[in-house]
Amino acid sequence: MTRHSSLLVALLLALTTLTACGSSETAASQGAGAAGEAASGEASGEVVRPPFAVRGNAENLMLVWYDEEGPHTAIGRSEVPTERRAEVRVQSLAVDDADALDEDSVYVADLRSSGDDGNYTVRRVARADFDAHIDAYVAGARGEGSALASTGDVIVYGASWCGACRQTESFLRERGVAFIERDVEEDPTAASDMRRAAAAAGLHPTGIPVIDFRGRIILGFNPAALEEAIAETAPAAGSGVTI
Fold first, then answer.
1. What is the tens place of the pLDDT at every residue in 59-77?
2. What's the 3-state SS for the chain?
3. Which of 34, 129, 189, 211 has the fewest C-beta atoms under 10 angstroms from its C-beta?
């Protein structure tokens, strides 16, 4: 296998890595917003100096950039479209950065122009935030935000082991609210839909459950937020179902 082929294989494997679900003990909160607003900014993060050089054509690095079609891979800055160089995930193929970067974070570089020292600015960003940021950008570019916000269903994204998810479902049943239960660990599509719905609302969940209450996103088991959502939308009688 040639060196070029080996790099491409490594890049493709990195793209298939999924972010693990967070703890069910995450703090509950809620919010809403347009997909375009979520996609227009940058994924937040702290400026850092990674244990490898990010300069020049960014050779010997794994690069992941994104556009309206989703993430793409490259093995050099020259392969990244000029208009998409502001936020490019970078990872060294030669240096082990495990000691400097935890598994829940990624390095994101601004490859538009380098500093006086020749290095590009690099930020450490939460992996979940960066993935959600890409989802929000794609959803906004495809005009999917309004469709997500106008859904008439109540969806509880969770997992079988999640106690907070069971509390949420019990709460909804007691109030006669029909809902759909989607297991984000058993169904990869559910996990993707959950992230996209949250990102379209400008949110970045770090745990479950995530409730899509007819377009209003609620993070965690939050009785007050659920009561408010029930009061402000037309409730539907029934019990939960699993798909």
1. 889 999 998 888 899 989 9
2. CCHHHHHHHHHHHHHCCCCCCCCCCCCCEEECCCHHHHHHCCCCCEEECCCCCCECCCCCEEEEEEECCEEEEECCHHHCCHHHCCCEEEEECCCCCCCCCCCCEEEEEECCCCCCCCECEEEEEEHHHHHHHHHHHHHHHCCCHHHHHCCCCEEEEECCCCHHHHHHHHHHHHCCCCCEEEECCCCHHHHHHHHHHHHHCCCCCCCCCEEEECCEEEECCCHHHHHHHHHHCCCCCCCCEEC
3. 189
